[in-house]
Amino acid sequence: LSEKLDKALHVLKGHGSITEVNVAETLKEVRRALLDADVNFKIAKEFTNTVKEKALGQNVLTTLQPSQLMVKIVKDELTELMGGDAEGIDLSGDPSVILMSGLQGSGKTTFSGKLANYLKNKKTKKPLLVACDVYRPAAIDQLHVVGDQINVEVFSDKGNNDPVAIAKAGIAHAKANGFNVVIIDTAGRLAVDEAMMTEISNIHEAIEPQETLFVVDSMTGQDAVNTAKAFNDILNFDGVILTKLDGDTRGGAAISIKSVVDKPIKFIGTGEKMEAIDVFYPSRMADRILGMGDVVSLVERAQDQYDEEEARKLQKKIAKNQFGFDDFLKQIQQIKKMGNMKDLIGMIPGASKMMKGIDIDDDAFKGIEAIIHSMTPEERTNPSVINASRKKRIAKGSGTSVQEINQLLKQFTQMSKMMKMMQGGGGKRMMQMMKN
Length: 436
Ligand code: GDP
Ligand code: MG
What we know:
The chain is an alpha/beta fold and 436 residues long. It has 3 domains: 2-82, Four Helix Bundle (Hemerythrin (Met), subunit A) (Up-down Bundle); 96-290, Rossmann fold (3-Layer(aba) Sandwich); 301-435, Signal recognition particle, SRP54 subunit, M-domain (434 Repressor (Amino-terminal Domain), Orthogonal Bundle), CATH 1.10.260.30. It is built from 21 helices and 8 strands. Strands 3-2-4-1-5-6-7-8 form an 8-stranded mixed sheet, with helices on both faces. Mean pLDDT is 79; it is low at 12-16, 60-64 and 424-436. Bound molecules: guanosine-5'-diphosphate (GDP) and magnesium ion. Residues 102, 104-110, 188, 243-244, 246, 269-272, 276 line the site of guanosine-5'-diphosphate. Magnesium ion binds at residues 108-109, 133, 139, 185. Belongs to the GTP-binding SRP family. SRP54 subfamily. InterPro entries: AAA+_ATPase, P-loop_NTPase, Signal_recog_part_SRP54_M_sf, Signal_recog_particl_SRP54_hlx, Signal_recog_particle_SRP54_M, SRP, SRP54, SRP54_GTPase_dom.
């Protein structure tokens, strides 16, 4: 989508003012782009009509270039369409019960884990996961694997094939054991059918959750809209979770679903890892759709992952000039924890374009890690002792070349210098600036 829009907006470049002609031309492209992203035809048409009215009504005597102005109008309108301000989830109950719904494979189980982990990290929340997918024994095991990964208890009852009873027992277990959030993972089917709808609506009626979330795979495009409508008709759900936004970003689903069911999109899933969850911000999604990247989410995710304790220790070390390769290694591990490298790069404006065709994966740091592992503790804490013969030994041990060692040492020196510069609030200020 973003590539198409880039092209569309490009049409406007070089024109001195917004005129009927170039607006029409641009909007034709914008509409085509939206349709390509599986946005419903009617919605796309309404959208471009609104943009057109706004664009032509604009005073061209502004400081913005016509193309910038157009981007702004398209962006504002997209944001509006996707729901204005970000909305949270209702955690007022004791325990607050959150019910997951959606088709099989949409990402319910994965998202249940991500949400539990997200809430657990908020410190005041103690979540319990409840396994109500009774059709496949593997489904229960899957939730247990997820629970183990994030250190969250999973309530299940393998012999029992009554999801309503399990959900109730899970909530009772939570009450008796001091859990204040209960996340209920349910079964889905490959397509909407009556049995599934009856089952989820029975669970819904029996437990009266604070939040009923509809989980949908963002790659399913137009189908997502029909599914969302079917579930909403039965459950009148509270919010939408858009998963798999890490792949070929199809913002289209976000736009269509929101306009068809008029329910807020609350979170997005951006990968298979438990950390790959973000609050949905319509304006950031609009930026993303428009190819501006998503710096704000990236910065927030980085901050979230970053253990404050570690940060303080690190600052002390930097101040005392004790920053070494072991710390560097820790930094790399922090970066890796944030998620898949491709996701991260996709959030930096312009970077995905630059990186096109270059294969970046989680192995990107492998060479660096190998080199550091081949260093002695002394070399790691005091890299200045690394002379020519040591370099040769390290290169041999790590299966790299002296040239690569030199490169790493240079990068390391630069990084240490930069970190020293960012001390004293400079770094914080930069983060703040990026946030605003
Ligand atoms: P469920 O049947 O609704 O419970 O779906 P699952 O949680 O089992 O997910 C189905 C598949 O999608 C699994 O292979 C997940 O790893 C994968 N998946 C879930 N969420 C995401 C996401 O945000 N990004 C990507 N790339 N994969 C995801
Ligand atoms: Mg599942």
